[in-house]
Specification:
Length: about 375
């Protein structure tokens, strides 16, 4: 690139490019945004910088001094610039590119306005330039759009400083733009997954998340607990992953029958192991919800108690091991014939075990066994 950049500027440009492309190297999106601002600010010799990125759980604006941005929001509706910046699309800009946005009703009136003199100048927000990336509506969101569908990095000067070399600044900004766009999409993926992981961590059901390439990218704590209690854990995990992959096949171009922003699910299926019955549900989450490409959510819920719960249940009601096995089968809705067959006993013996279980639990119906088993143990 023949730009006449000095060795120092080239080193600063390389550092900025590396930072823009490395959101995964930071503890979170906010730390990355801060580092990006500072690195690009040094490269362009700016006095002040502001980052805009609409991501759930993150403030849309990020800067060293957040107080002026609170004021700024109050003025947005007065000057109506958000839509104008959105209309710019993905672009590197200087004042020459965006100056017309602020000339209402005229440049002279703008420079004489109270907003410009009392807020812009006071907060060192003159000579704006920066990077603007247009995002598909709702791109970084889980749920309905919440506001701006742009990501931007704004850089400013003090009013007293000489005017910057706009052409030179534009050369540097254009060199940064592809990296800023790529880094923004990586950051959106990082932030969305992090927020989703926090959300899934609050659920009592086990959840597995697969990305658009059918790779497992997250298992919540409840899912890992289910596996820890299940003797057939490997099979259970394999079934969940296969279910997610089958659903992702529906998102392929030759199979997609629904709009990509929809969340679709084929309903629940039963999954039975030697010790428990599970309900498995899947949902295909389109790119309009999570961001880049469809993802599959697999939800696993145990419909019968786990081993620890069963052991506590056995001790509480003084059940024999055989009576405990009968109790578990009753919670699955098994008939006396099925109990006899599964336990390898006669129908008469199975009926007697069922009667003993009902008596010890103090219930009068087979259906009440499951409810009794789910009752919390009194301290």
């Amino acid at each position: 690139m023949s730009t006449g950049l000095s060795a120092v500027e080239l080193a600063q440009l390389q550092a900025a490019l590396e930072t823009l492309l490395s959101p995964f190297d930071y503890a979170g999106v906010r730390a990355w945004r801060t580092r990006v601002r500072h690195t690009v600010q040094v490269l362009l010799g700016a006095d002040t910088s502001v980052s805009l990125l609409q991501l759930p759980g993150e403030p849309p604006f990020e800067a060293d001094d957040i107080a002026p941005l609170t004021e700024y929001g109050a003025y947005y509706h007065r000057f109506d610039r958000v839509d104008k910046y959105r209309d710019l699309g993905t672009v590197a800009f200087t004042w020459r590119v965006i100056g017309h946005l602020w000339e209402r009703p005229s440049r002279t009136a703008w420079l004489a306005s109270e907003f410009y003199n009392d807020w812009v100048v006071r907060n060192r927000l003159c000579q704006p330039r920066g990077l603007n990336v247009a995002l598909p509506a709702g791109q970084p969101l889980i749920g309905p759009p919440q506001g701006q569908d742009i990501a931007a990095l704004y850089l400013y000067q003090d009013a007293e400083r000489p005017a910057v070399d706009g052409e030179r600044q534009l050369v540097l900004l254009r060199a940064l733009l592809p990296a800023f766009r790529a880094g923004t999409y990586l950051a959106l993926r990082l932030g969305t997954r992090g927020m989703l992981a926090d959300l899934l961590g609050t659920l009592s059901e086990g959840v597995v998340l697969l990305d658009e390439r059918a790779r497992v990218v997250h298992q919540n704590p409840a899912f890992r607990e289910l596996l820890a209690e299940e003797p057939e854990a490997a099979r259970l995990e394999r079934e969940c992953v296969h279910a997610g992959r089958r659903l992702l096949a529906l998102a392929a171009p030759n199979h997609a029958k629904s709009r990509p922003e929809e969340i679709i699910g084929p309903g629940a299926t039963a999954l039975r192991t030697a010790t428990a019955v599970y309900q498995l549900r899947t949902a295909l989450v389109g790119p309009g919800v999570l961001g880049l490409g469809p993802m599959a959510l697999v939800v696993l819920e145990r419909r019968t108690p786990g081993r620890r719960a069963l052991e506590g249940f056995r001790v509480r009601f003084d059940l024999t091991p055989r009576e405990l096995a009968v109790s578990r089968l009753l919670t699955e809705g098994r008939s006396n014939d099925e109990v006899a067959r599964l336990l390898g006993v006669s129908i008469h013996t199975a009926r007697r075990h069922v009667e003993h279980v009902l008596m010890k639990l103090g219930v009068h119906s087979r259906a009440a066994v499951g409810a009794k088993l789910r009752e919390p143990e009194m301290p």
